[in-house]
Write a structure and sequence with these properties.
With 327 residues, this protein is α+β, with helices and mostly antiparallel strands. The chain has eleven helices and 13 strands. It folds into two domains: 136 residues, 60s Ribosomal Protein L30, Chain: A (2-Layer Sandwich), CATH 3.30.1330; 180 residues, PurM-like C-terminal domain (Phosphoribosyl-aminoimidazole Synthetase, Chain A, domain 2, Alpha-Beta Complex), CATH 3.90.650.
Length: 327
């Protein structure tokens, strides 16, 4: 099997189709494209999401906090607490563990999220730090947003820039290799993108604004996220490549490694769909969050990316482009 997330077709057949549930309190269940579950607590809903960090060496503590909190925020919920499991390779030092834990605590504190439990152990089952986080959030029931809620005619909105997480990971993990291939100031800016991978602000803002669907852009990049939103919603999409914002630092790294920035892991960016995209963009940008309309949801099941010289189908995401560089 290829490194990375299991393909969605395999995930559905081998994993999801075997999961049966009957509890009426469970409002959102496992489904392709849905990164969270939601549990009914009366007027409020408890939203939970669990994820590992496996594709990075540096800044793993910071990334681990953001990835699960971003998923919870994609439901319009405010993340409140975090369960953290740290698997430490035998060759690691206590100093390295201390550094990872400092990253976790500093990042959680910056989001006003409490560390509420977890587990830590040294194991030969891993050859580098593996961190699994489970975020717990809270939202009013009538404000809960899912990936599968996209409606025909919705604008498709992206926040920030495509590929920023992958850019940061490559810049940190391949810094020595990149010397002489890229200007030092470009590399430093690329590394700084690790500070931009939270979508908690835009998730909460969009939830309050009222949108039909949200999805944090992780493995598979922008195109993978759009595929998952439309697949979960049973809709199609038309997306314009020249409207998708990509920073120059990302483009430079992608050219060096011959990878596609639109298929590169992109935590820090969110796909949002709603009827009045221009009004939502005004709300986001007035709060310091860059956003752009990049396409529309359609009533066809076809998913197309419009290029300067034609179009191509947006297909099921395979192994993320990141693994061609750091796998």
């Amino acid at each position: 099997m290829e490194i990375g997330k299991i393909p969605n077709s395999v995930l559905k057949e081998i994993i999801l189709d075997k999961i049966k549930g009957s509890r009426k309190e469970i409002l959102v269940r496992p489904k392709v494209g849905e990164d969270c579950c939601a549990v009914d607590f009366g007027d409020n809903v408890c939203v939970l999401s669990s994820d590992p960090i496996t594709g990075a060496v540096n800044e793993v503590g910071r990334l681990a906090v953001h990835i699960s909190c971003n998923d919870v925020a994609s439901c319009g919920a405010e993340p409140l607490g975090l369960l953290v499991t740290i698997l430490v390779p035998p060759q690691a030092t206590e100093k390295e563990l201390e550094t990872v834990m400092a990253q976790i605590c500093d990042t959680a504190n910056s989001l006003n999220v409490d560390i509420i439990g977890g587990h830590t152990e040294v194991t030969s089952a891993v050859n580098r730090f593996v961190i699994i986080t489970t975020a717990v959030g809270n939202v009013l029931k009538d404000k809960l947003v899912s990936t599968s809620g996209a409606q025909v005619g919705d604008d498709i909105i992206i926040t920030k820039y495509a590929g920023i997480e992958g850019t940061a990971i490559i810049a940190h993990d391949k810094e020595a290799e990149l010397e002489g291939k890229i200007e030092s100031d470009v590399l430093e800016r690329a590394k700084s993108y690790v500070n931009d991978i939270s979508v908690v602000k835009e998730g909460i803002l969009a939830g309050r604004f009222g949108v039909n669907s949200m999805h944090d852009i992780t493995e598979g990049g922008v195109l993978g996220a759009i595929w998952e939103v439309t697949e979960a919603s049973g809709k199609g999409a038309i997306v314009y490549s020249d409207r998708i914002p990509v920073r120059d630092e990302t483009l430079q790294l992608c050219r060096i490694y011959s990878i596609d920035p639109l298929k590169l892991i992109s935590s820090g960016c969110m796909i949002i769909t709603c009827k009045n995209g221009s009004e939502l963009i005004k709300e986001l940008e007035s709060n310091g969050v860059k956003a752009a309309v990049i396409g529309q949801i359609t009533n066809s099941i076809e998913k197309r990316l419009v290029l300067k010289d034609g179009y191509k189908d947006i297909s099921e995401p395979l192994s993320d482009e990141l693994y061609k560089v750091v796998g």
